[in-house]
Amino acid sequence: MIKTISSREVYRNPWTSVREDVIERANGERGIYGVIDKDPACIVIPLDRTPEGEFVYLIEQYRYTVGGRFLEFPQGGWEQAEVDPEELARGELKEETGLTAERMTHLTTFQIAYGVMNQKHHCYLAESLVMGDSEPDAEESDLVLHRVSVPEFEQMLLDGTIVDNCTAAAWGIYRLWRERR
User: 63, 76 in Cβ contact below 8 A?
Assistant: First the structure.
């Protein structure tokens, strides 16, 4: 067990706070632990079933931290500590894709990068989709929506086209959930 001796915030912006904790390990040794605190977020698997097959919707966007454009499931947060997870998921889906879902199923809640960050990530399956207008935030003005078949999507996961660990984890949970139903 690790005991917190002291904690101080070293940085804050509207999306993130960073703190530095002085800790004491079970063996009595002291050290420093850096922690990123973020409000809850969600990830949504928009699944479209048609007579032609199953399709998912992906967002392509520029990710500044790694300097490139990437494909991923719609995801994000509202910078609020207290938020209804399904309302958040429905809101992010509409905001980023223009889609609304007749049915939302909560699959699980992940912890993102819990070695350095404290953030819950609620995972939802969105079904019976209806297309409308998207409502992107200012920082999402470059989003591109893609609809791909499930086999194509899974190939993208395997060949490294999709590298977002949250997208891969969400799909893995969905596949397990589907197989056990």
Answer: no
Question: Hey, what domains does the chain have and what are their CATH numbers?
Answer: 3-37 (no CATH), 41-179 (3.90.79.10)
pLDDT in tens, 156-169: 999 999 999 999 99
Alpha carbons within 13 angstroms on the beta-carbon side of residue 37 total 16
Query: How far is 113 from 57, CA to CA, in rounded Å?
Result: 24
Residue with tokens 């999507």: 153
Query: Tell me: the pLDDT tens digits for 1-56?
Result: 999 999 999 999 998 999 999 999 999 999 999 999 999 999 999 999 999 999 99
Rama region for 178: left / alpha / beta (φ>0; ψ in -120 to 50; rest): alpha
Phi, psi at 150, each rounded to 5°: -60, -45
First to last CA, the chain: 38
According to DSSP, the β-strands at 144-149 and 53-63 are: antiparallel
12-40: burial string, b at 16+ Cβ within 10 Å, e else? eeeeebebebeeeeeeeeeeeeebeebbb
Place of tokens 């086209």: 161
